[in-house]
What does this fold into?
Amino acid sequence: MKSHRQELWFEVPQRRGFVNITPQVEQAGRDSGVGEGLCLVNAMHITASVFVNDDEQGLLGDYERWLEALAPHAPIAQYRHNDTGEDNADAHLKRQIMGREVTVAVTGGKLDLGPWEQVFYGEFDGRRRKRALIKIIGH
Amino acid sequence: MKSHRQELWFEVPQRRGFVNITPQVEQAGRDSGVGEGLCLVNAMHITASVFVNDDEQGLLGDYERWLEALAPHAPIAQYRHNDTGEDNADAHLKRQIMGREVTVAVTGGKLDLGPWEQVFYGEFDGRRRKRALIKIIGH
Amino acid sequence: MKSHRQELWFEVPQRRGFVNITPQVEQAGRDSGVGEGLCLVNAMHITASVFVNDDEQGLLGDYERWLEALAPHAPIAQYRHNDTGEDNADAHLKRQIMGREVTVAVTGGKLDLGPWEQVFYGEFDGRRRKRALIKIIGH
It folds into this structure.
């Protein structure tokens, strides 16, 4: 049995943004030496997501507008979390819709993704260094 | 250590629908020969979900109406993704609420599900052949 | 290869509530003897969630109000699931937003969590005994 651990670091310059991390996750899969197994990719921060969807700019903009409608950033005083001095309560909500993590199968030494599946880091409270974790186990 | 991979194919005749795939996932668990492990089940398409909930027709209808309220299909021009010629932007949104995947424990050679837990394939852009992936690892 | 299974039981006295289960999951990780692996934690009931977020009381109240706005409990007659005699259709919806499960990496014999990541059991139809499952595999 083999295991592999790797961190990916981000500093998204805006409050919100989506980063396609599929190449880095594929590289981690190769580095792991795992032929058959599972690859967990999760945000290590609670105002960010890792999710799988389409790398199409129109859709990523749709996500941005839709999440803002479901969990608006402003007025920040609508959230009790922001009474602590934070202004990111909406980011904690948005991340629950998009999810913390994905688990991807590893088959024949490669990520076992469907034809359009791309792995994204979703940032909802950026402008600082944050990270995601890749953990692969298998044989 | 053992691993097992299997695809499930679907062609849901309507745009949206829910298919209980628990029997097929249970069969894959038996076919794997895994006694103790983890079973990942994920949609391989980005307009579909795999999720666990109740096989009760009233509830499945409630999901349909609720998702349509949170991410309406029409008017299709409200989504920039549909500028590409697609009409399925809402399906990409609905799938994020319901999720891409579930991981189910395997214990004593069986899926370790609670009494009411059923595994579903959720289709949000059907009328064509699509698939889900089952990957089981363990010993 | 090693595996470990454990159940956590809850009886949340109100209809809805959040319980920080990080200490119990950490203890299960130690009990497993797994150094490198994956730890699945999932609700075994379909009206409850396991999720990772911040243990901050203001935020937990924000989740409560936000989920109630997205999937209101009352009027219960708005949901066809409640025609069965249940009054918990909203709990099945809320649980989909917060998620069924999390998978946490195990590294060096410890849960590999980011600095603010805490594991929660989210109850949406409480006042009875319910449980979550911990399953750890690795080496």
Notes: The beta strands of chain C are 2-10, 17-20, 37-43, 48-53, 101-107, 110-111, 118-123, 130-138.
